[in-house]
Design goal:
The complex is a heterodimer. By secondary structure, chain A is an alpha+beta fold. Chain A folds into 2 domains: 364 residues, Porin; 54 residues. Chain A contains 9 helices and 19 strands. In chain A, β10 and β11 form a beta hairpin. Chain B is an alpha+beta fold. In chain B, the strands form 2 sheets. In chain B, strands 1, 2, 3, 4, 5, 6 and 7 form a 7-stranded antiparallel beta sheet that branches. A two-stranded antiparallel ribbon of chain B has the order 8-9. The longest helix of chain B has 35 residues. In chain B, α11 crosses α12 and α16 crosses α17. Chain B is elongated. Helix content of chain B is 41%, strand content 14%. In chain B, a hairpin with a 3-residue loop joins β5 and β6. Chain B folds into 2 domains: 210 residues, Bactericidal permeability-increasing protein, domain 1; 226 residues, no CATH class. Classes of the chains: A alpha+beta, B alpha+beta. Chains A and B meet through β5, β6, β7, β9 and β10 of A and α3 of B. Chain B: Component of the ER-mitochondria encounter structure (ERMES) or MDM complex, composed of MMM1, MDM10, MDM12 and MDM34.
């Protein structure tokens, strides 16, 4: 489950039209989400609110052995008006789905620069450990964004670290530089897009795909996607260590009518590591991902598979004792039963306010019913070479979004359950 | 005295190596490893080699059936080797990001991917040279401490020998780690093992592992084991008993068994009431105070107990009693006494503080059997200093009335005169000792074996200024005091101690009389009443 503050931050990026995915560090974000999703640990309660369109708060309380918690505040200079933060209404699919379809490149950023500027401030304090986190994101021009993150904690060597990064996004290419106080690390990342919508030469093809009905069947069959290649380079000025990698990705564009897929290949020439990932969105309800890792120096290999299954049934249906079919049966009379309407209006005559609320509710319910394939829960699972299984079940009960996870080690049968956790979130 | 260590059977035993390998493997994997080590550390080969270490006895502070305290010098340059296997993370970016918070991590895509390399490290050509302090007692197990840094040199060869930088780094790191291991970990391991061997009853009491772990790190000279109070008669002096009765702290309670405490209490009461009953205490050796006859107090008479094997005699004030052994009185007290007393004083100095010592009012004699030349003395300097402090405070309370006899007890130690043949030192048995005593320390020893005359260094009883004074008068003092020493043999310090004790008794008597007087003035009726009925135990017989 994406954290509430991450959700709001993403909303900020959307509101300022910043393409977060157009970065080398996000090259294999899809498979990473599918294969390395975090498992909840212990019991954790989260109360969050987007109090005003510009201000959000989040309180978290965790209990596993000892009680700990965190308090977080977020301020955005751009009003996040269209963002749905309420946990009973937020659409689950964009919130929980790991597969991230490519977004269109910001090739044509017209309009005034004020549309693209904004500032986000975020602070979080972890209570018993006295750890403080802060982040500032500032968008200067349509193509330039800077970000500073800092952590202050007594556990860290110098009491804290600061990471500053600047991103320059030109659509076709993206360059970012970063500097960290931790070891004096300097980094440079770059990404170049071509093919698909990125290449002007290919642009007509997309047009052809759109007019495929005119008879060009061959063009329709042709796979349509975007290539991205990039690299990263790091150098620690204090510990004199360096690191680098190059990588490439092919991902289909949303306009492609076939099965969406993403394939990446990353190579670390210094360490001799080659990693290939593949993720495919097999229909509406299923996503599959796999990863293969090989080191040419040490001949070590690793693999991981993961999947994501979406359920249309009410999550925890057996827990609540409700049949899966019961929901449409209830929803249908609410949608178009004239007697109900009349009854409501009779009540409305007594209490005007209640009537308005009910109407609004029904309208919302109607909208929910209008999209028949609204997903209500998702099961994520992964398995790696060492026999470790991760299971995560996320969904919504009433107005609570929960995520229940377990880590299982099948090689050690005596204590196979490595971790069990439950996260419950309510936001308004 | 000579020890014969058999090195080859120890090294030939296959099971020994297996056990040692297992022990080392578990010890190495116990503590959390740095992120650079990604696998368990396995001890694959371990061999002690065929060359035994050279061991020299420098000093034996205390020797008895159930305890031992000594200082050794160990030199080793043999062919022992040790091979370790593990896997290390070769990507510096990976290890540096491991312990950092996610929030400020640069989150590299693949630059931090790991490369693990199997690593084999062989430690060989180990050269050790150390002063070892060994303290053993049945109650507290074996404590072994290195006085100095034992590691002289070491050859580290690894998979990365071709890379100069890595080789140097490994050499440096491993040397440092090994030093830590030798100085801190090894004494703890040995202590724990010895506890398992000799006193398993102590083990369940180790509920606080930290305390036990720290214990061996404590310098045994600063804090010798608090042993032998119940089983060895000589340590049973007034201050010890006072400590027992006054602060029955759990620490003390754990040192003495309840049964023995009861018996000792009975013994004390026996002395108080002049009862003839002597409780039999198991495993007790009664040690001698030489010259006890001189310490007879004014108001208690020597009392012969019916025990035939040993003729005990009780002397002293209400709680001070000493056990004399006729046998050891003849032979003098030299072989056993010095260290006992030094141990005693250090113990009391540690646990009770010197204040209580001075209260006890008995002159403590501290002697160190000095077998070494001055240069080697540095090892035991702290010991003697602490003793000197102790006795200085001791004597400070007593010496005021009689300062002259005190000088005679302070037999000048002449380390430069009593230089033993450097290095090889033998310790002599009590019989030899008593024979050799009349000999002047300067005369060459008649024994063919290289041996050293044992100089008895009477305590640096004297505080710093006295020391200075002594040095000024040494030229005259030396012959006379040596003469006294030779003439009188065993109870050399008795005249002084008698005078001291008499002075103390006079003082105490005055004190008591004053208190009685005060008390009488305050409550005259009470005392008149009491005078007529003396307690039956104190009736004259």
């Amino acid at each position: 489950m994406r954290e509430f503050m991450d959700h709001i931050t993403n909303s900020f990026f959307e509101a300022t039209r910043w393409n977060r995915g157009n970065s080398y560090s996000e090259l294999n974000a899809t498979t990473n989400d599918l294969l390395n999703f975090p498992l909840p640990y212990g019991l954790r309660l989260n109360l969050s609110a987007l109090a005003t369109p510009q201000f959000a708060t989040s309180y978290q309380l965790g209990a596993f052995g000892s009680v700990d918690g965190s308090i977080a505040y977020l301020y955005s200079s751009v009003p996040l008006n269209g963002v749905v933060a309420q946990s009973d209404r937020v659409p689950l699919l964009p919130l929980l789905r790991s597969y991230r379809p490519l977004k269109e490149l910001g090739l044509d950023r017209e309009g005034s620069p004020t549309l693209y500027s904004g500032t986000l401030l975020y602070g979080c304090m972890y209570l018993p450990r006295s750890t403080l986190q802060a982040r500032v994101i500032r968008r200067f021009t349509p193509g330039l964004q800077a970000q500073v993150s800092a952590v202050s904690s007594e556990d860290l060597r110098n009491g804290g670290t600061v990471l500053a990064s600047a991103h320059y996004d030109k659509g076709i290419y993206n360059v970012e530089g970063l500097a960290s106080t931790d070891g004096g690390l300097l980094g440079l990342r770059g990404l170049y897009n071509f093919g698909g919508d990125a290449s002007p030469a290919d642009m007509p093809i997309s047009g052809a795909a759109e007019v495929s009905s005119s008879g060009i069947a061959l063009e329709k069959e042709r796979i349509y996607g975007r290539f991205s290649v990039g690299g990263e380079l790091y150098y620690g000025t204090l510990n004199k260590s360096a690191g680098m990698s190059v990588g490439g990705r092919f991902a289909t564009l949303p306009a492609y009518s076939g099965t969406p897929l993403t394939a990446t290949l990353t190579i670390n020439p210094l360490m001799g590591n080659i990693s290939a990932t593949y993720a495919v969105l097999g229909g509406e309800h299923c996503t599959l991902a796999s990863m293969m890792d090989f080191n040419v120096y040490s001949y070590e290999s690793d693999w991981k598979v993961g999947m994501e299954l979406w359920s249309k049934r009410r999550p925890g249906g057996f827990l609540l004792g409700a049949e899966p079919e019961s929901r449409p049966r209830v929803a249908q009379p609410a949608a178009d039963d004239p007697s109900r309407w009349k009854e409501r209006s009779f009540q409305a005559k007594l209490e005007w306010r209640l009537d308005e609320q009910e109407l609004l509710d029904i309208g919302k319910d109607d909208a929910g019913g209008a999209t028949p394939d609204e997903h209500l829960g998702v099961l994520k699972a992964r398995l790696d070479q060492h026999g470790r299984i991760g299971l995560l079940w996320e969904g919504r009960i009433k107005s609570l979004i929960f995520s229940l996870g377990a880590g299982i080690d099948i090689r050690r049968l005596d204590q196979s359950f490595q971790s069990v956790g439950l996260n419950i979130r309510y936001s308004s | 005295m000579a020890f014969n260590f058999n090195w080859s059977p120890l090294t030939a035993d296959e099971k020994f190596y297996e056990k040692a390998r297992d022990l080392l493997t578990t010890a190495l994997n116990k503590s959390p490893k740095p992120p650079i080590i990604v696998d368990d550390i396995l001890v694959t080969e371990f061999n002690l080699g065929s060359v035994p270490p050279e061991l020299e006895i420098l000093e034996i502070g205390d020797i008895a059936e159930d305890r031992f305290r000594g200082i050794f010098k160990m030199c080793y340059s043999g062919d022992a080797f040790l091979t370790l296997k593990t896997r290390v993370q070769a990507n510096p970016l990976n290890t540096s990001l491991c312990s950092k918070p996610d929030f400020t991590s640069p989150q590299p895509l693949a630059a931090a991917s790991g490369l693990t390399i199997p690593l084999q490290i062989t430690l060989s050509e180990i050269k050790l040279s150390a002063f070892i302090i060994l303290v053993f007692s049945k109650q507290k197990g074996l404590t072994l401490v290195f006085r100095n840094d034992p590691l002289e040199s070491l050859k580290v060869s690894s998979t990365f020998d071709s890379i100069q930088f890595v080789r140097d780094y490994l050499q440096r790191t491993i040397e440092g780690k090994l030093r830590d291991l030798m100085m801190d970990e090894l004494p703890a391991i040995i202590h724990r093992l010895s506890l398992q061997l000799w006193c398993p009853d102590q083990l369940p009491k180790e509920e606080d592992p930290l305390k036990e772990d720290r214990e061996p790190a404590v310098d045994p000279l600063a804090s010798p084991p608090l042993d032998a109070v119940d089983s060895q008669g000589h340590l049973l002096d007034q201050s010890e008993i006072a400590a027992l009765s006054l602060d029955g702290s759990p620490e003390v309670q754990s040192l003495f068994s309840q049964k023995n405490m009861l018996r000792l209490a009975t013994l004390t009461n026996t002395n108080r009431t002049l009862s003839l009953y002597t409780p039999s205490i198991k495993d007790v050796m009664f040690r001698a105070w030489a010259g006890v006859a001189d310490r007879v107090d004014s108001h208690s008479s020597p009392l012969a107990t019916p025990s035939l094997a040993r003729s005990h005699s009780f002397h002293g004030t209400a709680t001070t009693y000493t056990f004399s052994d006729a046998d050891s009185q003849e032979h003098g007290h030299l072989p056993t006494r010095p260290s006992l007393v030094s141990l005693n004083s250090a113990t009391t100095g540690l646990t009770l503080g010197s204040g209580r010592n001075s209260k006890s009012g008995r002159k403590k004699k501290n002697r160190v059997v000095n077998l070494r030349k001055k240069a080697a003395m540095s090892g035991t300097m702290s010991e003697t200093v602490s003793e000197a402090d102790d006795t200085a405070s001791d004597s400070a309370s007593i010496q005021a009335p009689v300062s002259e006899p005190l000088m005679s007890t302070a037999i000048p130690e002449e380390p430069e005169l009593a230089i033993p043949t450097p290095g090889k030192v033998r310790f002599r048995s009590p019989e030899e000792q008593s024979q050799a005593r009349p000999r002047s320390p300067l005369s060459p020893p008649p024994f063919s074996q290289p041996s050293a005359p044992i100089t008895v260094e009477q305590p640096k009883v004297v505080a710093a200024k006295e020391q200075k004074q002594k040095q000024t008068v040494r030229s005259e003092k030396v012959p006379t005091s040596t003469g006294q020493w030779e003439k009188r043999g065993g109870p050399e310090s008795d005249t002084s101690s008698v005078i001291l004790e008499q002075a103390w008794i006079m003082k105490m008597a005055g004190e008591i009389a004053r208190r009685v007087y005060d008390e009488k003035r305050r409550n005259p009726g009470f005392w008149e009443e009491r005078d007529e009925i003396p307690p039956p135990a104190y009736e004259a017989r």
